[in-house]
Design goal:
nine-stranded mixed β-sheet, Aminopeptidase, binds coenzyme A, alpha+beta
């Protein structure tokens, strides 16, 4: 298995892998919209096994609303591994290898929303430990995680701001379907 930058030719297969991993189309639609948006930074990586794309991850631009100024940061989303290849280390290898590629970037932080049972093994910590706050109260605190990159400095505190695409796709945090309409 190897991890490499995604090429234009991979895009249709990547879409299939994302839809299969999440078991639904909306996340694949989110990825398509990210590709078309000004948040896209061409930081999209695939895991390849026997010549087939079996996993994908991309990183797009968000902002940290720090006291001094807005800082461009990265958001890891989505991360997908083809269902038949899950739990065999593909996701971990994909994240580790792509984070190595990000070491030379100017962005100081990589944020994500995800399982606190999964991402700490890859080096992510809860955002609150660095004075970072989530863009929505619907993101459970343990799920709001961050990793520092080499350009990180301790003054970089404040709220993560998502680009418009995540909101248009209602891809932020968790909804409560049991809440009354006007709760
Ligand atoms: C989450 C995902 C990317 C992990 O990739 P993977 O290649 O299956 O994971 P790895 O092989 O690197 O790691 C496997 C370990 O992670 C754990 N793990 C996998 N997915 C997990 C999840 N969603 N929550 C918590 N732990 C998870 C497993 O328990 C496993 O540990 P174990 O072997 O001790 O049981 C993959 O399962 C996937 O595509 N899931 C569907 C889409 C998704 O939920 N994406 C992440 C959104 S934040």
């Amino acid at each position: 298995m190897r991890v490499r930058a995604e090429s234009g030719a991979d895009v249709p297969t990547t879409r299939e892998v994302v839809a299969a991993a999440f078991g639904e189309e909306p996340v694949a639609d989110l990825l398509d919209a990210l590709r078309e948006s000004d948040a896209w930074r061409h930081l999209s990586f695939v895991a390849e096994e026997n010549g087939e794309v079996v996993g994908h991850v991309s990183f797009t631009r968000g902002w940290l609303d720090a006291p001094q100024r807005l800082v461009e940061v990265l958001v890891l989303s989505p991360l997908s591994v083809r269902p038949d290849m899950q739990r065999s280390g593909v996701g971990a290898a994909l994240v580790r290898a792509s984070l190595e590629q990000l070491e030379v970037r100017d962005e100081p932080l990589v944020f994500l929303e995800g399982s606190p049972a999964y991402y700490p093994r890859l080096g992510f910590v809860p955002g609150a430990t660095l004075g970072l706050t989530a863009p929505s109260t619907r993101i459970p605190a343990p799920a709001f995680q961050v990793m520092t990159l080499p350009t990180y400095e301790p003054w970089m505190r404040g709220a993560l701001v998502y680009p418009d695409v995540f909101w248009r796709h209602d891809a932020v945090g968790l909804r409560d379907p049991s809440a009354a309409p006007h709760d």
